[in-house]
Amino acid sequence: MSCLGFLVSSFMAIAIIHRAFGQPGDQISGWEDGRATFYGDIHGNETMYGACGYGNLFEQGYGLETAALSTALFNDGAACGACFQLICVHSKWCRPAAGTIRITATNFCPPSSTSPTPWCNPPQKHFDLSQYMFLKFAIYQGGVVPVKFRRVRCHKQGGMKFQMNGNPYWILVLVYNVGGAGEVSNVKVRGSNTGWIQMQRNWGQNWLTGPGLVGQRLSFQVTASDGRTVESDNIVPPTWAFGQTFEGHNF
User: Fold this and answer.
1) Closest to 225 in 3D by CA, of 181, 161, 174
2) Torsion sign over Cα 41, 43, 45, 51
3) Quick check: 62 pLDDT over 90?
4) For the chain, what percent of residues have pLDDT higher than 90?
5) CA distance 133 to 65
6) Per-residue model confidence as pLDDT tens digits over 4-18
7) Using CA atoms, how far apart are residues 118 and 206, in angstroms rounded to an integer?
8) Which of 12, 64, 100, 129 is the most buried (most CB within 10 A)?
């Protein structure tokens, strides 16, 4: 083989590895053993909304590349927004040479005391995928397959989003489209007439604070589970209204 042919083959091999396993430094954790099933139809209608507080996953940029996590992984909603890489292993139902898939945690797979197949019961580490993603690496008829999985960094388009919900007595902010670690561990808000105010996780990635911020220009400070913090100053104008969404900086 010529030197040129060797170089071309090497670059092609590197590209295949990157597609399958991500860029160097992309991983957050090492490989672990788990299991995967799927829920909903191929269009993913049943995967919308859910326990993380997200709404229409297509409009919010998550699409069908999503999963509901078992109790052992969900961490009471703290894992919402985390990204994972999965590969189907050790099963005749794995698609040959399918490689890995990447998903974002957007829902909770609850435990069951009555199901004959309680895949999501503790301490099992389980992913209930959208059907679309399950079929990327496994055969429909298999239904459930063993997997290897690991946490990876999230690559999102555009800035972090802040959806303003609530009423004049309390404000509930949904934080989504988070890059980097994906998991939000802390949020603070600052009005044009206040200092930084600590928000509290209400459920999923919905963060709560009290009254007094209506009519003020708002800034947000978001800390991810890896300790990194990003500040988005004055991104919400004083004329903001409930139901609106604003874009800030991302990791």
Assistant:
1) 181
2) positive
3) yes
4) 86
5) 6
6) 443 333 333 333 334
7) 28
8) 129
